[in-house]
Design brief:
single chain, alpha/beta, 5-stranded parallel sheet, 52% helix, 20% strand
Length: 155
Amino acid sequence: NYRNDLIIKEIENVMSKTEIKNILVALDISGASKKGLDTAISLAKLYNAKITCVTILVVYPTLVSTVINYEKFLRGKADVMLDTTKKYCEKQEIEFGSKVLRGNPSTEITKFADAKKMDMIIIGAKGLGGIKGKLLGSVVNSVVHESKISVLVIK
């Protein structure tokens, strides 16, 4: 919490004249983005903002029946994670919304942020890592470069 307070203090200095009412938090089903959510909650309290969380289903085309079953499995995990996140935000009296999207994570995150007129995107620096992360490229890097709005990357 101390680290979050320091981050919030720095953000206050940089964004003292910025109005933040809608915060988009990119979550992944690994749970690695919890620090980003905690930072978003702190900002939402500070600015009386709404948090909208998105998670992206990435399904690679193979056999149709395999894809359908795998997507159902991923959607189930995503729904559980978003329900838990909703309860966590509601306990702290934060207005909450969520959406499960399908496709390329960085593209879907930035498209959603633009379409819903978000004021800021918060994304955890870690998620899909290791060899897969290096082969597929960095979602965080892509979001930072593709987004038309401010992106806060949380390590």
